[in-house]
Design a protein that fits this description.
Rossmann fold, alpha/beta, 10 helices, 37% helix, 2 domains, two-stranded antiparallel sheet
């Protein structure tokens, strides 16, 4: 049996009020599970969602299916509870963004390649991990692609965070150990900077900024205050050369990147990593996500104090769309090729960049 719920691709609301209440109930009662949807209703995709239900350790909750066929044309299954048909394939991306879906399983035949390509293009504006079922895929821009199985069902991860499983543990342990060692070394320096900020201008020592973190969720990032203003929302202008908002002492801090040192505390909190895509102002995120394809993919990992883009010449102001595009290209390249060695290389290169680079102000 199939329950059909009409979800419009151009709306963020359910047409069926009772269906909306059901979804809210699902969100609260099963919030500890990762939210997942499946594109394409078939015997194979049914088998996958039934396995999720039977194995709670997987911590995946399937919210329903997307399919372009009418309910009466879909294959029936009287041996299991009814599935929920959420809507047409074209409405998948809107649903994923509206209800913060973490996993998308695409179970469409290769004959549906045009629809798959169109869907992948729309999903670039989300932070969801994307998987194909079965594994015979066409040429896509893969992020940390790998093949695995779930109860014998081949699953191809085509857009997934590099920090899953053992990699996540390696990343976190290296972050904590390096951060503790660095904080022990720079604690006296941070104390002197705090005194300098307080004496050089009125206002707090630390500037707390709201940024997008892992999965595009809001986090609070710390910096030593380098400006006379405390902009954190609305229209925020990037700092430019000879910016009148920057204090003389703040100019020195920004030039040497010493204003970023409090972010090591963010690393210990688990909000950031030492290495990763640099966090941008929320207003900048909302602007560039509509201008640059794949922009939100950079939020599949924690933001970093330094990153692959910054050591390749894209540190400081990005006054043109082309420069921001180049920065995002480097961020995505980091996701594709991450290794612990690459992180260490970026850290050492950062030291050299801070000493020689003239792009920060």
């Amino acid at each position: 049996m199939i329950n059909s719920i009409d979800f419009e691709s151009n709306s963020t609301f359910w047409k069926n009020p009772m269906a909306g209440l059901a979804l809210q109930h699902w969100s609260f009662t099963k919030g500890k599970k990762s939210r997942a949807v499946i594109v394409g209703l078939s015997d194979l995709s049914r088998k996958l969602t039934h396995h999720f239900k039977q194995n709670p350790l997987l911590r995946v909750g399937c919210m329903g299916f997307f399919d372009d066929r009418l309910p009466e044309r879909l294959p029936e299954d009287n041996q299991h509870p009814p599935e929920t048909l959420l809507g047409k394939i074209a409405s998948t991306a809107e649903f994923v963004k509206t209800y913060n879906v973490q996993h998308i399983y695409i179970a469409l035949p290769l004959s549906a390649q045009p629809r798959i390509m169109a869907l992948m293009d729309e999903l670039r504006d989300t932070t969801a991990s994307i998987y194909f079922v079965p594994p015979d895929i066409v040429s896509f821009d893969l992020i940390q692609a790998n093949i695995s199985t779930i109860n014998g069902i081949p699953i191809v991860a085509v857009c997934e965070s590099p920090f899953v499983g053992i990699n996540n543990l390696i990343k976190r342990i290296s972050d904590v150990l390096l951060t503790l060692a660095i904080l022990l070394l720079i604690a006296p320096l941070m104390l002197l900077i705090a005194i300098g900020v307080k004496l050089s201008s009125s206002g707090p020592v630390l500037f707390k900024q709201r940024r997008y973190g892992l999965d595009g969720k809001d986090i609070v990032v710390y910096k030593f205050r380098s400006m006379t203003v405390m902009e954190d929302d609305g229209e925020i202008n990037q700092a430019t050369r000879n910016d009148p908002r920057i204090t003389p002492f703040g100019s020195f801090l920004r030039k040497t990147s010493l204003d970023e040192l409090p972010q090591f505390i963010n690393v210990l909190q688990g909000r950031m990593s030492i290495v990763g895509p640099r966090p941008h102002a929320i207003s900048h995120n909302e602007m560039y996500r509509s201008l640059i394809k794949g922009y939100m993919i950079r939020h599949k990992v924690k933001p970093g104090i330094t990153g692959w883009a910054q050591v390749n010449g894209f540190r400081g102001e990005t006054e043109t769309l082309e420069k921001m595009q180049a920065r995002i290209d480097y961020d995505l390249d980091y996701l594709r090729n991450w290794s612990l060695f690459l992180d260490l290389l970026i850290i050492f290169k950062t030291i050299n960049v801070v000493i020689k680079d003239k792009n920060a102000y």
